[in-house]
Design goal:
Elements lengths: L2 E5 L4 H11 L3 E6 L11 E4 L1 H9 L3 H6 L2 E3 L2 E6 L4 E6 L12 E4 H14 L3 E4 L3 E6 L4 E5 L4 E4 L1 E4 L6 H6 L7 E12 L13 E6 L4 E6 L5 E8 L5 H7 L1 H11 L5 H8 L9 E5 L7 E2 L2 E3 L2 H4 L8 H18 L3 H28 L7 H21 L3 H4 L16
Parallel strand pairs: 1-2, 1-12, 2-8, 5-14, 12-19
Antiparallel strand pairs: 3-7, 4-7, 5-6, 9-10, 10-11, 13-16, 13-17, 14-15, 15-16, 18-19
The chain binds flavin-adenine dinucleotide (FAD).
Length: 408
Amino acid sequence: MTKALIIGGGIGGPVAAAALQRAGIEAIVYEAHSGPGDGIGAFLTLAPNGLAALQTLGMLDAVRAAASFPTTGIEFVNGKGRRLGLLPDGSDQGPPELRTVTINRGALQSTLAETAQEQGVRIEYGKRFVGYTETDTGVAAEFADGTTAEGDVLLGADGLHSPVRRLMDPDAPRPDYTGLLNIGGYVRAEDATVAPTRGSTTRMLFGKRAFFGYQTAPSGEVYWFANFAHAELPREQITALGDDAWKEYVLELFADDHPDVTALLAATDPARFRPLGVYDLASLPNWSRGRVALLGDAAHAVSSSSGQGASLSVEDALVLAACLRDLPTPEEAFTAYEQRRRDRVERIAAEGRRRGNQKTGSTNPAALFLRDLMLRVVFRLIARFASHAWINDHRIDFEQRVAAPSPR
Ligand SMILES: Cc1cc2nc3c(=O)[nH]c(=O)nc-3n(C[C@H](O)[C@H](O)[C@H](O)COP(=O)(O)OP(=O)(O)OC[C@H]3O[C@@H](n4cnc5c(N)ncnc54)[C@H](O)[C@@H]3O)c2cc1C
């Protein structure tokens, strides 16, 4: 195996290319957008497991230096701001360089792309993948500009609505809408009128009708996000409503909650209020077919409530590259990759769905009272018994030789 074509230059694509390059396999990334930070959302968190995978590839220092700050715990409060619980994620007990960080998504993508390029990876922007053909000896990708590219394998790192997945397996299930819309924005330091959050802790508020989270960055900027229950809306309908109307709608959702929330929302540019649906893809029957395989959200999207999508995509990249390096055929490599990854990501997808389900509000005061009571107990139990170490402490030994997969 000498050459891999990777569709998608988001998070998993450039990392998979860097890992393959290190494994002695040439990898070229094809990204539809015209640059690494184009048309993407506000921010996300990278957990110790994802950071450790980046460290293996020599990409960690650049990522940490790029507009990131630690987020090692969550303080949960009710709509009135009264504390329900504090959940450290445990990463402050580990090596400082692997503490969970919040990072601007554009900065993360640019940094991953630049670091991969410094390591010899070629990334071609403005290349929208539209189809592929496969022969016994290789695969050819087709792009909207009429060009083609040939390689030994084709890897779909093309996200939640993956065109590679649709073509590889037309019967694959579509991502499931979780019933929540998400928006994320930030308020400039000079416009932030709320008291800063403490240390490296995000404050998350179970409001009357919706869920809100925010954290003050060391720069003084406040990063926030909101989740609220809503019927699924097609992209065009979301856009048609207009940014000002969305801002008004969201302000109304939090009108009965702590004034800090409305202060932050009011100080935010209306352009930040256009929501995205929260989707997951709990279990995809086929992760690969022939010379084509999927990674990251294309294979197993987890809800944003898990805070793990980006980290899992990076883990996939490392495992997939090691399998392609050590096994003689694409089919064997893809089977070994799936066997190493499926259980873990499906368990995290289920966990993300469970967390998201707690985020819906109620207009009934008795129901809200009971919810807050129940949450206090739940957070105490989680803090005591339900460690998330199995998620965050996962490490991949890239140097270890991958054994042949067990028969399917
Ligand atoms: C609102 C929100 C908040 C989130 N918060 C977190 C968080 O806190 N922590 C976390 O870990 N994860 C979070 N996630 C999930 C995380 O963003 C994804 O899991 C992660 O981006 C997946 O990486 P990926 O490389 O698989 O896909 P993506 O990052 O989506 O990259 C896919 C790339 O493929 C490109 N592409 C698509 N179609 C084509 C085509 N036809 N041709 C060429 N290129 C194409 C896209 O332009 C894109 O650049 C969040 C997601 C959302 C929506």
